[in-house]
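## retry 2 of 3
previous attempt timed out at serialization; input unchanged, resubmitting
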Amino acid sequence: MSEARVSQLVSEGVIARGDTCAGWLIAYCERLRDQAAGRVGADGAGGLDLVQERAALAREQRIAQAMKNKVASGEFAPIGILADVLGQAASGVVDRMDQLEGDLRKACPDLPEDARAVVLSVVAKARNEWLRSTAKLVADKVDELADDFEDEAAVMEDHD
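## retry succeeded, writing output
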């Protein structure tokens, strides 16, 4: 062991100045055991803490598994997929509502123009309200899901 290494061990408090050679040997061996067990980093204080690293890895694995379980049970899906599905569903409904004017003209050619305008106005208002409330519902649910996920992650972190 070099003189520089001995000085470093003294400054780190591993060995005490003025102690016997046998005391230094025992202290140095304890330090090596602690490093091997992951209780102390290889470079002394501030080094890699194996126990904390393992705990962090275990926490991330639990979060990932919880998300996989939610996907498998249908409780969770990527936001992009949900938005696409809802957009396609909304588009189909809106297309059908937009065909109503032509269908009314064919089915009821004698229907007065004022009555037709009232029916189309009510349907247009209902369609617009449906789109608005659906968009709001999706935004609220996405925010709620994100908050729930953050809360679960925080709870899992607190247990570590």
